[in-house]
Design a protein that fits this description.
The protein is built from eleven helices and 17 strands. The protein has 361 residues and is an alpha/beta fold. The longest helix is centred in the C-terminal third of the chain and has 39 residues. It starts with a strand and ends in a 13-residue tail after the last helix.
């Protein structure tokens, strides 16, 4: 099966034979007492990569946002949630709401709607919450504008950067995604003690662990008050070893992998255009496609699987408005892209303009 469903964007999968041995998988104690060996070093490397004063590892983004919004709720804030935010960060926001914190939702990426929402709230400091990048719409969030509005009211911006970390980085003319892979904040050239970044490393870096990054003062306070660091296990030694490998690969080969990925996504998008299929306006590896109205996306998805091509099916509300996404990774070869496009054309009964995609170099 040709897989276009994996979010391992850079193709990092960390087989056991690629990792060093460890004496103990776990220390049998929570992170509040002692973290596994190497944890502090990885946190320092992540802080540098992301351009923040300090970073702290967490078992998952669920643990991370659960604690973060409990901490923010104690600070007596109002929360303004971008409507496009991912469910896990929403669950953290819901925890704050349960404690009495005011939560208002504004239209996705709409800075004017945010401004109106801020104007109708009381004088408590605002916390604006958003995803750094939206795969569904193919756009980066306007973090700079969110930050300006929040800072003017002594507030903060919380960014879930799980999609962008490892892909986007410092702007460079020759690099479509930017360089370094430090995420949305590096892409926007932002460095502010009013920014709080939470991110999974399970996508581009292929490591099931999360990181909280921001000012040293805020991360220190999070570390002191985190309940999950007391009651839950920390990342295992295996995870720390995989993260060390991922960051080393990113340091030495990351920009080359990102360039390869951009070329594969570009090839895929060229083929879609020749099919007359609309895709997201971005080179991001998640490529949602909009098929012509007369084409049934669920039937196309089923036929693609029969042909040995696995893509992501979004069923839509009440089973309607289904959509297909192809997730391209650096592991895909040109022939993989061509095969997917040819099968998409056949399954959709669409005719490709000019020569077939397989005849292109």
């Amino acid at each position: 099966m040709l897989d276009f469903t994996s979010a391992l964007y850079l193709g990092l999968d960390h087989a056991s034979r690629c990792l060093p041995e460890w004496d103990r998988l776990t220390l049998g104690k929570p992170a509040a007492l002692e973290a596994p060996p190497g944890t502090s070093s990885m946190e320092g490397k992540l802080a540098t990569l992301m351009g923040c004063e300090r970073a702290l590892l967490a078992t998952s983004t669920l643990h991370l946002f659960w604690d973060l919004f409990a901490l923010l709720a104690k600070a007596k804030v109002n929360i303004f949630l971008d409507a496009g935010s991912y469910p896990i960060v929403r669950w953290g926001v819901e925890r704050a709401a349960c404690s009495g914190t005011l939560v208002k939702t504004f239209r996705q990426h709409d800075t004017n709607d945010l401004k109106k929402a801020l104007a109708t709230a009381d004088g408590k400091p605002p916390v604006v919450v958003a995803d750094g990048y939206c795969p569904g719409c193919g756009r980066l969030a306007p973090i700079t504008e969110y930050l300006a509005q929040a800072t003017a009211r002594d507030g903060f911006v919380v960014v879930d950067d799980s999609q962008a970390l490892g892909i986007f980085g410092k702007p460079a003319r020759w690099a479509p995604y930017g360089t370094g892979g430090g995420g949305s904040m590096q892409r926007a050239s932002l460095n502010s003690d009013r920014l709080i970044v939470g991110s999974s490393l399970a996508k581009a870096f292929g490591v099931p662990v999360a990181v909280l990054a921001g000012s040293a003062a805020l991360v220190d306070e999070y570390e002191r008050q985190s309940a999950t660091r007391v009651h839950c296990s920390p990342p295992s030694s295996a995870v720390i070893a995989a993260l060390d490998r991922a960051l080393a690969i990113n340091r030495w080969h990351g920009d080359a992998l990102r360039m390869k990925l951009a070329l594969r996504v570009s090839r895929f998008r060229r083929g879609l255009r020749r099919l007359g299929v609309v895709a997201t306006p971005s080179l991001f590896p998640v490529q949602p496609i909009t098929l012509p109205k007369h084409v049934d996306a669920q039937k196309v998805h089923a036929e693609l699987r029969e042909r040995g091509v696995d893509a992501v099916l979004h069923r839509g509300e009440r089973g309607k408005n289904a959509q297909i996404s192809f997730v391209v990774t650096a592991r895909h070869g040109r022939s993989d892209i061509d095969r997917a496009l040819a099968n998409l054309a056949d399954a959709s009964r669409l005719k490709m303009e000019g020569r077939t995609i397989l005849e292109r170099s």
